[in-house]
Amino acid sequence: MTNILLEAKNIKRDFKDKDRVFHAVKDISFDLHEGEVISFIGPNGAGKTTLLKSISNYLVPTSGNIEVMGINLLKQPRKARRKMGVVFGGDRGFYNNATARENLRFFGRLLDVKEKELKQNVEEALETVELANVGDKKAGTFSKGMLQRLHIARGLVNNPKILMLDEPTAGLDVEAVYEIRALVKKLKQQGHGIILTSHDMADIENLTDRIFLIGGGEIHFSGDIGALKKFAKVDQDESLEKTYLQVADQLKRRD
Ligand SMILES: Nc1ncnc2c1ncn2[C@@H]1O[C@H](COP(=O)(O)OP(=O)(O)OP(=O)(O)O)[C@@H](O)[C@H]1O
User: Fold this and answer.
1) In the prediction, which pLDDT does 224 show?
2) Calpha distance 68→81 (Å, rounded)
3) For residue range 43-67, what is the model confidence (pLDDT) as tens digits?
4) Whose CA is nearest to atom 3 of ligand 1?
5) From atom 26 of ligand 1, which residue's Cα is the shortest distance away?
6) CATH code of 8's domain
7) Is pLDDT above 80 for 2?
8) What residues does 22 pair with on adjacent strands?
9) What pLDDT does 236 receive?
């Protein structure tokens, strides 16, 4: 068994509205191993974003415990958070008039990367995402696919073992989607643990080792795609989209 990079135990997150308490995440536990890609799938309002925000320290859970490479996220949030690259992607997030290298150096400094490590980290991140040859070009001249790779480089600039990739292929053309998928596979082979969110079932089918079906703030199933197909009682050659549709109804909130 490989090393556990992240362990979330009994995560609950409530939202209070006047005198009513809404249980967005009820009691979720999961872990993430080295070299593994996991994904949470479920209907709108299932609690996926709330859960991922809790793990990446954008929201404090109501209760539960999160260990990131042995560091307690709730007790030492800054230290734990630095072990994780959170990649939101999209057209924004960079200084258009600065080069890719300058942008990465800037974000590296924001993440407290030491000056003597910064240059090497930036070069390694650019190499990994295959942008080293255009590193001196302004970010504003980059295509959507290149920008997405630059976002991933930004997530890598302080050398985190864990990456959270939010919709990494959204809005990209077929070729760029293919490149991003190849990059995710490379990161996984390098030993990164990756939490992938995507509405594109083909991304999940291609990349994810372990799927967590989430509905009504709870996990209904976890396992690989083959096990999910058994759980959904569909043939093994059925598409993930059809498999998901078989179980979608039972994931709807009843509260
Ligand atoms: N700040 C908030 N205050 C009150 N309720 C909230 C807040 N954030 C989320 N919720 C509620 O918690 C539930 C879970 O929302 P969440 O965004 O985590 O779901 P999701 O699975 O990510 O959905 P989607 O696929 O639409 O992004 C929803 O019913 C939502 O309305």
Assistant:
1) 97
2) 8
3) 999 999 999 999 998 999 999 999 9
4) 15
5) 44
6) 3.40.50.300
7) no
8) 15
9) 96
Confidence grade of residue 248 (pLDDT, cut at 50, 70, 90): very high
Q: Which residues pair with 222 in a beta bridge?
A: 212
Protein residue whose Cα sits closest to atom 16 of ligand 1:
47
pLDDT tens sequence across 77-127: 999 999 999 998 888 899 999 999 999 999 999 999 999 999 999 999 999
**Range(s) of the domain holding residue 14:** 1-80+209-255
Q: How far, in Å, is the centroid of ligand 1 from the Cα of 84?
A: 23
Number of domains in the chain: 1
The continuous run of DSSP H or E covering 201 comes out as helix 201-207
CA of 44 to the centre of ligand 1 (A): 8
Give domain status of residue 192, yes or no: no
Cα distance between residue 113 and residue 124, in whole Å: 14
Ranges assigned E (strand) in the chain: 4-17, 20-33, 37-41, 63-68, 71-72, 84-87, 162-166, 193-197, 210-215, 218-223
Is the Cβ atom of 81 under 6 angstroms away from ligand 1?
no
The pLDDT value recorded for residue 1 is 61
State if residue 95 touches ligand 1 by the CB under 6 angstroms criterion. no
* Nearest residue (CA) to ligand 1, atom 12: 24
* For the CA of 47, the nearest atom of ligand 1: 18
**If you search the block for the tokens 């990446």, which residue do you land on?**
56
Residue 62 is assigned to a structural domain of this protein: yes
Measured CA to CA, the distance from residue 74 to residue 64 in angstroms comes to 9
Pocket test for ligand 1, best of 17, 50, 56, 244 (most atoms within 8 A of CB): 50
Q: Is residue 173 part of a domain?
A: no
Nearest CA to ligand 1 atom 2: 15
